[in-house]
Amino acid sequence: MQTEWRKEWLPLAAIAVAFVVAAIVYSRVPDPMPTHWNAAGVPDDYGSRFVGVLLIPLMSVGIYLLFLVLPRIDPRGANYARFSDTYRFFRTLIILFLLFVYAVTLAAAFQPGYRLNSAWMFGGVGFLLAALGNYLPRVRSNWFVGIRTPWTLSSERVWRETHRLGGRVFVIGGIAIAVAGLLKPEWSGSIVLIGSLSAAFIPVVYSYVVYRRVRREESGDTAQDPPPNHPQS
To answer: Most buried pick, 32, 121, 207, 231, via CB within 10 A?
Structure first.
């Protein structure tokens, strides 16, 4: 799958914006600065200015390059051409999400008490999950992107059915997480945990269920084949 660079302007522009912002704010943010917040938006971990300002821009470059490399090292690399637009959407969405996180966290560094806007953060995470889920059924079998279990990787049918359900679970989980940002912190944390675990585990369990069903159907078909005709002795 060859990269069409004219279609890459948006993620590349987002990465460039992140580095421009980093150059502007580097000398203005506190050192150390908050790098992690709890569900209530209160900082619970701090890091150096270098980490706080440059980690996400550098991560964006690394993740973008990784997305470009994966089709070239995947044994099923030919399948990427079958969902190239979706694959491009995924890498663009993730880079834009990192830029969004970068903006929210930098804004918090300038707030009194370094308070993070949890509603914005939960909304962003929820939107990311729902958007990924909406396109998840379009992903074709590969070793790096999608719901990769021993069962989905062993059967095209299991892959398709798992990703249909997984897409719905991601969308529902994403909406739940976005709504959680509007609730009290003691409630939002539980909703985010349930939504995240559901998106992580339900498709995995379902892939095994579908795999077993497919195996039973295949075994049943074989059992129903007429026995071969043997010559009478």
So the answer is: 207
